[in-house]
Amino acid sequence: MASENTRDRLVEHATGLFHREGYHAVGVDRVAADLGISKKTLYKQFRSKGDLLREVLERCHDMAVRDFPDEADDATPRERLLGIFDAQRVHGEAPGFSGCFFVNIGTEFRDPSHPAVRQARSHKDQLRGYVRRQADRAGASEPEVLAEQLVVLHTGAADYTLLTGHYPDSVRAAVEALLTAHGID
Length: 185
Prior knowledge:
mainly alpha; Arc Repressor Mutant, subunit A; Tetracycline Repressor, domain 2; elongated; DNA-binding; Tet_transcr_reg_TetR-rel_C_sf; transcription; Homeodomain-like_sf; transcription regulation
């Protein structure tokens, strides 16, 4: 049990550090020291810093997917699509918002073939898939185009929020306009 607790604490702490300061800026010495454990203990849990990052990305993905509106609820696809952006606004307005972790990882590594970048892209692909399913259910004129537009808007809204310190009010209006343009009322 102590081993699982140590692993969870490592992932939770590394998530915050990697997200706020960047993966490359944070060494395993710092992660271990902050938690009051040895590097040996850290390496018993994770073979490498890259393995720790892989688990951090998995958990971040799981947390982000939990924010997707439930596809089995009574909401309309339009309400679900707007809900994605409502959830993003809540995160963007929270103290310490550090942008989209998945985009941050892509920016840090820059190599599309790097395992961490592939993992980050997979998250965006799953978001696009969710949006595409909602667009299909609503009878959108071009579901794939709409899915791409909304994921780009979602990514841009996070970047804008990071750079300006506030979530843009215009995002909801832009989402509504795109949904209407694609026949989703």
